[in-house]
Amino acid sequence: MQELMFSLGRRRSLRDPIASTCEQLQFTPPQVHALLWLGLDGSLTMGELARRLGVTEKTVTGVMDRLEREGHIVRERGETDRRIVRCRLTDEGKQTFAKLDRSMHRAMGVVMGMLDPDDRQALFRVMEKVLSKLDSPTPDAASET
Questions:
Q1: What sequence ranges are listed for the domain HTH marR-type (predicted)?
Q2: What percent of the residues of the chain are helix, what percent strand, and what percent coil, each to the nearest 5?
């Protein structure tokens, strides 16, 4: 399995579409993920972004600082609770999101195009099963609570 993973990793066409997109558009992976989440879900709080990116709020602040400096996002304080900061894409950020989305779809299309329809369906089933297992509590975690 390890040899297969290394072999796949060496082939540029099969690399992670987000990594390829990061290189093309000169963003870091967390910046790309933040743009994708904001593009898909609209306005999110800094805490929501941190959870979705799997980083601390301090880290997401640095990510948002650069995206804001470059004009991709704006931050807005809550009207009733000024501690809450929401982020949303600017028009430029929406254009960048569209580029990211197209680039990732193109990259995934190349990979999926290598498979026949039955193999694609099998891959989707396996990936859905993996995601389901990742989203459910593990037996060990469930017994500890």
A1: 1-132
A2: 70, 10, 20
